Amino acid sequence: xxxxxxxxxxxxxxxxAHVLEHGLAGASLRPLAKAAGTSDxxxxxxxxxxxxxxxxxxxxxxxxxxxxxEMAWPTEPAATRRECAQRLLxxxxxxxxxxxxxxxxxIVAGAAKGDAAYRASAAAMMxxxxxxxxxxxxxxxxxxxxxxxxxxxxxxxxxxxDALGLGEVGEAGLAALEG
Amino acid sequence: xxxxxxxxxxxxxxxxAHVLEHGLAGASLRPLAKAAGTSDxxxxxxxxxxxxxxxxxxxxxxxxxxxxxEMAWPTEPAATRRECAQRLLxxxxxxxxxxxxxxxxxIVAGAAKGDAAYRASAAAMMxxxxxxxxxxxxxxxxxxxxxxxxxxxxxxxxxxxDALGLGEVGEAGLAALEG
DNA sequence: GACTACCTGTAGCAACTGCTACATTTCGTT
DNA sequence: AACGAAATGTAGCAGTTGCTACAGGTAGTC
Lengths: 179, 179
Fold this sequence. Notes:
Oligomer: homodimer
CATH architecture of chain A: Orthogonal Bundle
Shape of chain A: elongated
Radius of gyration of chain A: 18 Å
Protein name (chains A, B): TetR/AcrR family transcriptional regulator
Pfam families (chains A, B): TetR_N
DNA-binding region (chains A, B): 28-47
Domain HTH tetR-type (chains A, B): 5-65
CATH topology of chain A: Tetracycline Repressor, domain 2
InterPro entries (chains A, B): Homeodomain-like_sf, HTH-type_TetR-like_transc_reg, HTH_TetR
């Protein structure tokens, strides 16, 4: 079945799928290789080192995330920032985003520790998200750029609360947004 | 120097200090033991297993965090929610909180993965923080509970942006808070 | 066919992982 | 002083970690 030659480009999707399901921090070469239909030997060959693998993987995941955002059904414009944030939270809570969010918090943790690759990936994903948020603000928003940032803070905060099992805190907070 | 008998209570502070500096996810028994002046053998003896250690450590860190919050100098009440959030962000950015925040994102990641111990620790820390936030809202706030939640979302979101190296995004977002 | 560049499997190494068996010391109690 | 429980040191085990040396295979080009 897996008889064609592999390359980083053919490996990355399978590796990303494995990482989305099992996490990135604890991923070691042999399980990753098995999931991608190769050997640890070949992963090192293609990516030079595990650091190289992780860096490539983070870039790939950031790209996947941007594309996933673009494909998420565009809601018709919301009337207020509050409503906008609530809709975006609902989208972020959709099951298809759950693996991304699990991975997202790992990436945030890595970035907080100062790792450059994690930080670059996180910044890329956040930039996509900010742009997407800005595009979904109410069309009459007085300051879309600042509004998108405020909404992003609130939505990300809510998603964090979700991760902690405190979803209601996020909902109550968003309900208190002006609008 | 370290000739007295050890117990979980005497070990936990040193273990927590090590974890605050070096992270929790990658902490293994031998380095932890060395930092606490013991052996891996004794860590297992006192905490039964590494899971037991981590659970105890997470509880301890949550307690430390509550106490650290109580000791953070209480600002005089802010005039608006926005000003309140901005002050709280400034406090969260103080150097003394940096190790806590690094660890915090690790805990969030662990909680997002569904680990019960991480989730409990995170919820405890978040509860402390919500109460503290509520106590620092403007005294004339119409709905302190909801307000504290909104401020928490915004401040946590800003701190996340800080972790990603996007501090300005947090600042711009907070500036757009009503008030 | 020969040459070359890329790709891959096998085997293994040194370090580290959590944990344990066994022996010994330390201490409070009697 | 004697006893039992709690605490500790030494040594090691089985499994995993990232990575490598070596030997081949596989393709395209001349």
